[in-house]
UniProtKB/TrEMBL annotation:
<keyword id="KW-0547">Nucleotide-binding</keyword>
<keyword id="KW-0636">Prenylation</keyword>
<keyword id="KW-0342">GTP-binding</keyword>
<keyword id="KW-0449">Lipoprotein</keyword>
<dbReference type="GO" id="GO:0012505">
    <property type="term" value="C:endomembrane system"/>
</dbReference>
<dbReference type="GO" id="GO:0005525">
    <property type="term" value="F:GTP binding"/>
</dbReference>
<keyword id="KW-0472">Membrane</keyword>
<dbReference type="GO" id="GO:0003924">
    <property type="term" value="F:GTPase activity"/>
</dbReference>
<protein>
    <submittedName>
        <fullName>Ras-related protein RABA6b</fullName>
    </submittedName>
</protein>
<comment type="similarity">
    <text>Belongs to the small GTPase superfamily. Rab family.</text>
</comment>
Length: 177
């Protein structure tokens, strides 16, 4: 597999951010390779993954960056955000604290990221409805207030994962083309 593809029309960088253990790495492995891991390794050992997407007659190579566990120490640096056109900001619907921290992540994103970055707020683990702490409406309202797109997902059950990434990539394409 090559990292540079002469046949692609655009190369987009996007980043995954959010608290530790919300499911960022599993969302990415689901999107890039249709894989899910039950164990909670802080990292799956990759820094980014690629997927090619066709929009109209254009071939887009999406390069999605994942943290290698640095979010545990709030040690994500400006280089992580550099050149990123989109972000999935992820929280866990069963842990209110991860939703409360979305504000901090957004602040960091606005400090280091491009002003017109496409941000999708993602409430992950929607398969765990019995232990839900954050209502879907809460997520949606917050997203609306902040001008973000919003989606609830399950990396485990493969719900809305494709949709969340493709929504972001389509919006980036709209803005940049
Ligand atoms: P990260 O630290 O944000 O990258 O989170 P991980 O992807 O490593 O996931 C943390 C834990 O949550 C792991 O045990 C995963 O198996 C689990 N997990 C991730 N996504 C989901 C999901 O959609 N549903 C459920 N039930 N568990 C998930
Ligand atoms: Mg991870």
């Amino acid at each position: 597999e090559d990292s540079f593809d002469e046949d692609c029309d655009y190369l987009f960088k996007a980043v995954l951010i959010g608290d530790s253990a919300v499911g960022k790495s599993n969302l990415l492995s689901r999107f890039a390779r249709n894989e899910f891991r039950l164990d909670s390794k802080p990292t799956i050992g990759v820094e980014f993954a690629y997927r090619n997407i066709k929009i109209g007659d254009k071939l887009i190579k999406a390069q999605i960056w994942d943290t290698a566990g640095q979010e545990r120490f709030r040690a994500i640096t400006s280089s992580y955000y550099r050149g990123a056109l989109g972000a999935l900001l992820v929280y866990d619907i069963t842990r209110n604290a991860t939703f409360a921290n979305v504000k901090k992540w957004l602040k960091e994103l606005r400090e280091f990221g491009k002003p017109d970055m496409v941000v999708v707020l993602v409430g992950n683990k929607c398969d765990l409805g019995q232990t839900r702490e954050v209502g879907e409406e809460e997520g949606r309202e917050f997203a609306e207030k902040e001008g973000l797109c919003f989606m609830e997902t399950s990396a485990l059950e493969n719900v809305n994962v494709e949709e969340a990434f493709l929504h972001m990539i389509n919006k980036i394409h709209e803005i940049t083309s």
